[in-house]
Hints:
Blueprint: H1 2-11, H2 14-49, E1 57-60, E2 63-66, H3 67-101, E3 110-112, E4 119-121, H4 139-149
Antiparallel strand pairs: 1-2, 3-4
Amino acid sequence: MRLFKGFKEFILRGNLVDLAVGFVVGAAFATLVKAFVADLITPLIGIFGKFSFPDWTFKINNSPFLIGDFINNLLSFLIISLVVFFFVVRPMAAILDEMKKHEKKAAPATRECPFCCNTIPIKATRCGFCTAEVAAVTAAAAAGAEVEKQ
């Protein structure tokens, strides 16, 4: 019984169910696009050449090469790729860019010594490298100076 309970928890996990739904919807969409290309796009292309585009083949040693079928699948792939790019990739990139704009930057923990240009802690009053005395800087003032640099 414990084995089945663990399996049930695994199957009903949110990510797995979402992945399964996405896979099924993606497969249905691919079938729809393939039918769209085979039934509407390739016959339109065939009108101009007066030949059956999907049946376009040639043989070498009685082995058929289905050029028309390959072109149908290539067009389906390109259409699916365009849809995924414009309706998934681009919107997600825009959302992530917007999120990065609104992220608050953490106050820096270090600063540069004005005498020797080595990195020292923000609260240091003396440089550990050149031993020069440096003015104390608050974290808020350092954050403001960091924003000005950018």
